[in-house]
Amino acid sequence: IQSCLDEFTRVVFSTRDHQNDFEYQNRVTIYRVQCGCAAMLKPPWQKWFVPIARSGTLTKRTRSIFRFSDHPDEIEGVVGRAWCNNLRWLELNDVPIPRLTMSENEKQDYFNLVRVPVDKAVKMKHNARAYSAIGIELRGKRWGVLILDSTKTEIPTNSKNKQAFRVFMSAISPILESI
After folding, report:
1. What is the residue-level pLDDT of the chain in tens, covering all 179 positions?
2. What is the rounded distance in angstroms from the CA atom of residue 144 to the CA atom of residue 160?
3. Which has the closest alpha carbon to 90: 27, 129, 133?
């Protein structure tokens, strides 16, 4: 999975705007829905979006988990928004940098956009300015979510990158099915 993720990241972020970026500025992460007991989280009956793989070497270790719910209004994170997006690409560009000094309206706008409260987002070490995400389906069932994020204000989403996603998924689907 790791070599496929790293290659996919290299292809997607190979545009002129991203070619001189540091590795940690552009990431690809695969999340899977797991119950709290499997992920050793509390409460154990709650379901969570848990990262199972991330591109690169510097940002692999993450504790970024997000609450899952069967109710779209209760789901957390861009990963949750992508899960609810019926296997269509979700693209968020020009996302503001979260700050505790934001007005209440700005905080609410930020939450509505990324589905993470500002105080939680501030604690995260990597505050992306752009996201591109899509649900992963295996054998006709929703399995997880693939998220691209960047500290730049835009992620290139074009036919080349969507084709790279299809190639990437055909390469890793057999591996994901065994997880």
Report:
1. 888 888 888 888 876 665 656 666 788 999 999 887 666 666 767 888 999 999 876 666 677 889 898 888 899 999 999 999 988 899 999 999 999 999 999 999 999 999 999 998 988 866 789 999 999 999 888 999 999 999 888 887 777 788 888 888 888 888 888 88
2. 22
3. 133
